[in-house]
Each structure stands twice: as C-alpha cells, then as structure tokens.
Design a protein that fits this description.
The chain has 280 residues and is of the alpha/beta class. The chain is built from 10 helices and 10 strands. It has an 8-stranded parallel β-sheet. Keywords: Folate biosynthesis, Magnesium, Metal-binding, Transferase.
Amino acid sequence: MNTFFRCGRYRFALDGAGSRPIVMGILNVTPDSFSDGGNYRFLDDAISRAEQMIADGVDIIDIGGESTRPGAATVSIEVELQRVMPIIFALRDCGKAISIDTYKPEVMREAIMAGVDMVNDVRGFASIEARQVVSDVEVGLCVMHMQNLPSNMQLAPAYADVNDAVTDFFSQRLSELDALGVDRARVCLDPGFGFGKTLAHNISMMRHLAEFRNTFDLPILAGLSRKSMIGEIVGRPVEQRLAGSLAAALGAVNQGARLLRVHDVAETVDAIKVWQQISN
C-alpha cells in the first residue's frame, strides 16, 4: 500500500511512526439527513460546526448537500450547489482537507474549482462523466459501493456473497479509473455499510475489511457512525448510538480501515488515542 493517501493539498500518512486512522467529520447541510438533518443547513451553523470539528481534531471535513438515507429523494443540481458552495468557500482555507459528498459530475466540477481536496461519491463514480471530471485533477477520491439507489436500496438487499460483489465492483471501477490515468495513491475504497445491505451483510463486510485492503492495496474507509446497523445491535435510537459507533469504529480500525467517517469527532479521536496506546 502507498505510504501516503494523496488528498488534494494534503498527504495523509497511512503507515509508519506518527500515523493514525484519518478522521473524516460529517457536515450535512441538508434538511433531511438521517442523524442531523436540518442542524447545519444555515451557513453560520455549518461554520460553527466545522470550527468545532477542527478544534476536536478532525482531518477531513465532508460536506454533503443531498441526503443519502434510505428512502431519500434526489435534489436538483441547482439546489445541491446552493447548499454546498457557500460552506466550501467559507472553509476552503480553514487548514483542514475539505471533501464534497456528491455523485453529480456538475457538483463535483464546481466544488473542485472552488478548492475541495476530495470527492466522496456514494455511487462510486458510476458515470463516465463523473470519472472524467476527477481524472486529471489532484483531489482524493472515495469509491463507495451501493446496491441500487437510496430510494430503494434497503427494500430487499440480496447477494450471493456480499464480499465477492463488493470486490468485483471495486475491481471494475479501479480498472475504469486506471484507464483514465488516475493515480491510485489518491484513491480510497468504502464498502458502503448500510447502503443496500442487511445487518448480516454489514457484519460480514466488517470481518472482510483486511481482505479488501490486501486485495487492492488501498486504504479502506469505514462509515459506520450512528447507522441503523448500530441501532439493530444495541436497540437504541439514532441519538443514543455514540458508544456503539465508537465500538464499530475501533473494530473497523482493528480490521484494517484507515479512514473513519464520523459524526462524533472528539469522541472518535479520543478513542483512537486510547486504542493506539494499548495496541502499540
């Protein structure tokens, strides 16, 4: 695996002295995200939240303008741009890497021109247009697997073998990115916990993270924070899933994940510090 993950203006160490899991903080500027929808849809609130994440030790701030919760409706390009561009302009020089969470090539293009360091695509750069937008720039890329679309992904998820399906998807997408000359040093992979998967599928993928990492020799991102799989295990509503989310995050790190996408930055950073002291 590459020593560094190249992410726009930033390089994150993946191994060696001083390296640690990379913490990506979630900043949803939407009215309907599953956990914090509506909390940060106004610019001042979003900036305050970002400032708190920076103080808490975040590495990457992931800005999303369209909810991808199960059953979520799509929004227009214009609405998504209206939501995300002001916060991108406000944070692009904040001293932390900025990521845009979008699958729309038009939004990717505008966000990259505005200075984001990473594109996080829940559809895994499925369209040739999306791949072309990111092919000749220096931003980091997160390639995520999702079965179907947010509107129907949790209706009846089914696989012959979920890990084989995710592996095949990553292989195809990486080949397509390779053909466009994309340097794999700026790519990470996200198996897509909760995106068209049952609890059994999610647990199976968790146990397979090291295999994904070893197969592709790329860093793995795990997005588990407050998700329904945590709720199914602990029997708690979304606002009471912190402990379960921290346990899942450390479990993912133990299985080989190098990036964690989380709501609770301070608590995750603290948990990583304790885990590293013990494991080292």
